[in-house]
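Slide 14.
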Amino acid sequence: MNITIKKLLKTDWEIIAGITAAVAVIVLKFLHLVHEETMLTLAVVLLAGLFLRELRKELAIDTLMKDIGELQAGMKLLTVHQAEQGSSLVTPAALYDAMCAFSRRAQGVCVFKHINPFMFKKDNHFDDFLKPMLESDAVSEVIFIIIENDKDNYDLYVREKVDACEGGTKVAEPIVSENPDGNGIISCNCGLSEEFEALITFFSEPFMVKYGENWVPKFALHVFPGSEVSKSVSDSVRRYLAFR
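Slide 15: predicted structure.
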């Protein structure tokens, strides 16, 4: 039913009405029920209608292009502002590649703070996001911070795969803690303020999308090393590690 309604709404009824009227007048002409003046009047009316229709389309396109231009300008200002503050927004189209690149360049102590282990359900996600850290000589330790409800997912999607992976001994026993901050953080060089780097996700739309009971990242905030933002995020992560 909804598909039928959408098709009806997309139908160009002005064109159909014009063609129907023209055909009707031509038939009436053949039946000698209308005069040439009537046909000429109809032709003028149809042409005027088509002209107004195209004019409305041009005005709509002009308005749309203006809105797009304003949106692009706003996004440019936002991007510049974020860069000045030491972070940038990673969009859905770039998120997978950004996480792969982050994992490959990770160093030191790496922390997955309140990242749902469900993310590693697919083997290719584990191989691309976590395995490079385990196999890298530059990474000394990998720590997961999870909530109580994620224990089963951790055992199923992380622990079993880590145990079968070279470098799996780098993964410490997970820290179980609530998440009052309401965000997830993948970070490296924890404890080194000048080199700390992170990807942050937030547990709400539009930053994540929920599949059943599990949140899956859609956007991320990339925090650059050495920025003011990185120092604040680094302090947040270290608070969870202080008493382990």
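Speaker note: The chain has a mean pLDDT of 78.
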